[in-house]
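Below is a filled-in request sheet from our internal design queue. Each sheet records the structural input a requester submitted and the sequence that came back. We keep these sheets so that new team members can see what a complete request looks like end to end.

REQUESTER: design group, bay 2
PRIORITY: normal
MODE: inverse folding
CHAIN LENGTH: 346
BACKBONE (tokenized):
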């Protein structure tokens, strides 16, 4: 890994500065492994324990298997301890200068596989594609709810990444307001398209493929690369190579291609970083159906935005400087991270 001076880099999607602290020079083997606490013997997500979760919302099942019983391949249930609840209306009110809404939304758990010990990095492509398909199906269903403005799909793997259970699962939270990080990306993409009449993320992808310096994995449909202003060591973005704004419109063929690239990146994490805890976040377009008064703006989302996955291992901790300044400090330049990940045989 080459020597570089520390520098500020501007994240054009989130419109913020990141410090690439190259002089700290952390290499993969220098990140201390985060050890997980031993898990309990009982798992409510394993087959045979379906009655220990709320009734399923959706599932991909073997033909003839019973609802809320074994025989499923992927299963979606309401979160037992939801951050938001489906009931009610998001009525805005005020307490003096402060605004608040009722806590309306949806909070679901995607139980990705019946196999308790099947991390994504070791799972069959077809199994991962089923998980990605149910993401798409749930997104389509939740977008029909006119109370919901955004649907966030994410995965926490490992206790250090926020997972409370070991069994492979993801979460879906639909909100009655557009999250700030999403709004910032949407605005950055809109401004770029207004000036250049091109998609910002398409331009980023084109440059990353041309330079190849930060590429991790690529095929005819998808590309994975370490962002120029990576917030975290070994952060990776995965995106379709050709413009596509809405994950809910992906084809089964696209999902299988995405499954292959996602597994490839996670397999590289496993070998390079000793199977670290990680998070990924799916960024897709907001629910355009709930903004009829701003139709002219939301119609442009099809041209402005480009769905993608942000993926990062949990190798560093956010501390006082980060919270106080809003800067992220990344001790591993993305060029070095990508070069190392590319060198891993998967």
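RETURNED SEQUENCE:
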């Amino acid at each position: 890994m080459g020597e570089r001076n520390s520098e500020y880099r501007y994240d054009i999607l989130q419109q913020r500065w990141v410090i690439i602290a190259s002089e700290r020079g952390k290499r993969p083997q220098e990140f201390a492994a985060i050890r997980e606490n031993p898990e309990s013997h009982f798992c409510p997500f394993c087959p045979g324990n379906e009655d220990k979760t709320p009734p399923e919302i959706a599932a991909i099942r073997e033909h003839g298997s019973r609802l809320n019983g074994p025989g499923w391949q992927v299963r979606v249930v309401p979160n037992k301890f939801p951050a938001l609840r489906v009931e009610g209306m998001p009525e805005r009110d005020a307490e003096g200068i402060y605004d608040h809404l009722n806590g309306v939304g949806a909070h679901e758990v995607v139980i990705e596989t019946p196999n308790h010990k099947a991390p994504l990095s070791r799972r069959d492509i077809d199994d991962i594609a089923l998980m990605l398909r149910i993401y798409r199906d749930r997104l389509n269903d939740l977008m029909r709810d006119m109370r919901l403005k955004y649907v966030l799909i994410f995965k926490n793997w490992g206790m250090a990444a926020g997972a409370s259970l070991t069994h492979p699962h993801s979460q879906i939270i639909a909100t009655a307001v557009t999250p700030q990080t999403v709004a910032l990306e949407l605005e950055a993409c809109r401004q770029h398209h207004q000036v250049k009449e091109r998609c910002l993320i398409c331009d980023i992808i084109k440059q990353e493929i041309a330079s190849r310096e930060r590429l991790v994995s690529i095929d005819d449909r998808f590309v994975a690369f370490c962002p120029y202003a990576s917030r975290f060591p070994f952060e990776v973005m995965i995106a379709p190579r050709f413009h596509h704004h809405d994950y809910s419109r992906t084809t089964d063929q696209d999902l299988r291609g995405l499954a292959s690239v996602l597994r490839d990146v996670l397999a590289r994490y496993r070998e390079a970083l000793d199977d670290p805890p990680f998070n990924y976040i799916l960024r897709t377009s907001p629910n355009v159906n709930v903004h009829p008064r701003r139709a002219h703006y939301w119609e442009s989302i099809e041209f402005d935005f480009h769905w993608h996955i942000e993926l990062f291992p949990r190798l560093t901790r956010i501390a006082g400087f980060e919270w106080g300044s809003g800067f992220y400090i990344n001790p591993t330049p993305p060029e070095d991270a990508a070069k190392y990940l590319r060198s891993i045989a998967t």
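SHEET NOTES:
- The mean pLDDT is 90.
- The chain has one domain: 9-25+44-342.
FILED BY: M.R.
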